[in-house]
What we know:
Layout: H1 3-16, H2 18-27, H3 33-47, H4 55-68, H5 75-85, H6 89-102, H7 105-123
Amino acid sequence: MPDRYQTGMRTRREVLGDAHVDRAEAAKTEFDAEFQELITESAWGRVWASDAISRRERSMLTLALLAATGNFDEIPMHIRATAHTGASKEDVIEAFQHVAIYAGVPRANHAIKLAKATYAEMEAGDER
């Protein structure tokens, strides 16, 4: 496997945790194998692996962008990742406040709802 793939898998595990990555890998099929390779190499092996900004900052940016663009399905996964990236609850709410001003209150409101539910699951010990 290419070095970018190995870097991506290492970064992905560091950010999302082994349990999440193991579940994703187990669910991979021939149908989505190339897509999984693409995101592992590009998102995790290039963007998330870059040290140009901290993982804390990258986590905040990712959550804000997901909320601003209405891509809510991945918000819980990235809230869980904050346990590994160093982004605090205060950081996350600040990011979502920016979303409210620059992308709309309904999107920020929904993202906050998802974050609250995910934090409650995390505090209850649900790793998903």
